[in-house]
Every structure is written in C-alpha cells, then in structure tokens.
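Chapter review: from sequence to fold.
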Amino acid sequence: MQHHSQLEKILQQAIDALNSSMNRPAKGAPSSLAYLIWDYLFHIEYHLAQIIPDYKKLVSSTYQE
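The token string follows.
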C-alpha cells in the first residue's frame, strides 16, 4: 500500500513541523494567559514566515514574563 506510506510520511512531517513551532511549558509547570498569547503569536509567525518570503519575526523565540 504505497498510498498508506505516503500519507504516513506526510502526517509525520506535519507533526514534526508542529512540534518544532510550538513551545510547551514543562509538564506540570504553571502557565498563564500571557504565555498562551505569546505561544499563539510565536506559532502564527512561524506560518507567516512560511508564506511571506522576507517576513521578519517580531516575537522573541523565548518567553519572558
């Protein structure tokens, strides 16, 4: 089943891309609304950089309260 292996490869690439573009707090660590907003903006910028060739990121790659 060649189609199955192609789909599996595409899904794995999507998962890898998602994991590389998300910053998750440590398991059990407290989180805040500010962190959630920062993570959302960080993720949106990841996609903007994919579709806009010269996009310059504005959000820091590390969260600071």
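Two observations follow directly from the output. The mean pLDDT is 80. The chain has one domain: 2-51.
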